[in-house]
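Proteins fold reproducibly. Take a tokenised chain:

. . .
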Amino acid sequence: MHAPMPSTSRVSLSPDGIVEGYASLFGEVDQARDMVMPGAFTQTLRQRGLRKIPMLFQHDPGEPVGIWLDLYEDVRGLRARGKLIPDVARGRELLALVRSGAIDGLSIGYRTVRGRIDPRTRIRKLYQVDLWEISIVTFPLLAGARVDAVKGAHAPHLSRHRAAAGRAWRKPDGAVDVPAPSGRRSMDAISESRR
């Protein structure tokens, strides 16, 4: 297994509405105890192509906000570059929210094609996924899946409270404590697809 990389990825935003960041990071455990493995997106990216993977807001299929211009795997994870559409009201709002630093999360919606739960750690390793969509979200399931920084402008100043909340949310070893889910959602595919 490769050495862990720091979870410092953030979505970046250029003045023309181009957003960039990692939608998924390889080898990192998310809050659902899933770990995406290198190569998990290879087949779905080849089969679907860019136009079949929508850019949504908060995983809502009724809220398309832009288009993905480039999606590819590198050694770190699934890198995404897309463009918010300012002619769409929510696209304009997201442009302002990302620019100000209020929202910076990326999250994938997917179906597991091939995965295995490690009996020792109870972590589910995902070896192949069918990628449905990538969303800009407030709370990503994977802490490091975020927009990089604002390009072409000063980086947003995080309030003292937001910075403290971010530090408290992450444990020193990078793991995150979250309460166990109260029950399964009615649609397994939706609950499994939120990252």
